Amino acid sequence: MNMKAFLLALFTILIWGSTFAAIRASLQGGYEPGHLILVRYLIASAFFFILLALWPGVKFSLPKKADLIKIVVLGWIGISIYHIGVTFGMETITAGTAGMLIGAAPIFTALIALFILKERISIMGWVGLMVGFTGIICIALGSAGPALTLSKGAVFVLISAIAVSVFFVLQKQLLSRYHPIELTAYFTCAGTLPFLFFSPGLLTSLQNASVEAHLSALYVGIFPAAIAYVTWAVALSIGKASSVASMMYLEPAIAILVAWIWLQEWPPTLALIGGIIAFSGVLIVNSFGKRREEIPEITTGSTKVQ
């Protein structure tokens, strides 16, 4: 990987990894989860349309009628369900734990691709899936601390991980017909519509939130969903896709580190051990999991959401 692609990819992963701590900071600073989601994606939607207007070579047009329903449904899955699960889940679990659970999403992606895209998985791939699921169980059980129970927050975030995995797999056909920035703008707008349900009480939440909470909400509305997406797309365009995508393995570790520095949070020991196990499973699946004749693209797609 050339140095420019490496630096852009690293910058992107640093932003995506910090997302979980920023969400947690907004929640602790007075935002209700639904209000935070709504504010964040109103900002992101506006920013994306500005980006579309300025991005060279991208001409904005309405999606094709045949693709409209699929785009809306995928927007609800990859944006609406994902962010509702993550944000409401992080009311009760640490930012690092949430980052590790989402970091295990490629495990679900590989399994979904097996059934939907008929991608064949090798014996080592199945080993990786079993290792990954063992890690996910440890993270989920460890999220509640020494009680070893499955916390509600962990369930919400696991639903998000499954949702984003479905999103990654089903968007592949659309990526062949639309520019990635254009397609992500469609997904963002479609996914924002259900968040209007959280409009009641928004003004009160904004008035009660701290300055840090507002700055964190602004940060997650602009940087992870827009600026980081652009830097990721550029990194993929100038670097080897597999090498750039491998940088995503750093995201859970960055999420833990940022949460420790910013919020003085540290995941429970069992959740941390589970994160290491899940990470090992992801590595096995992505490195040895596909048959030689298969060329996977599911984890290098440009429409990563955060």
Give the tally of structural domains.
1
Radius of gyration: 18 Å
Query: Mean pLDDT score, rounded?
Result: 82
Number of strands: 0
> What is the 3D shape?
globular
Q: Could you explain how this protein is built, in words?
A:
The protein contains 14 helices and no strands. By secondary structure, the chain is an all-alpha fold. It has one domain. The longest helix has 28 residues. It starts with a helix and ends in an 18-residue tail after the last helix.
Give a quick summary of the entry.
With 306 residues, the chain is mostly helical.
Looking at this protein, list some descriptive labels.
single chain, 306 residues, mainly alpha, 14 helices, 73% helix, globular
Please give the structural blueprint:
Elements: H1 3-28, H2 33-54, H3 65-89, H4 95-103, H5 105-116, H6 123-142, H7 152-170, H8 172-175, H9 180-192, H10 202-208, H11 211-238, H12 241-245, H13 251-263, H14 269-288
Helix pairs in contact: 1-4, 1-11, 1-13, 2-3, 2-9, 2-11, 3-7, 3-9, 4-7, 4-13, 4-14, 5-6, 5-7, 6-14
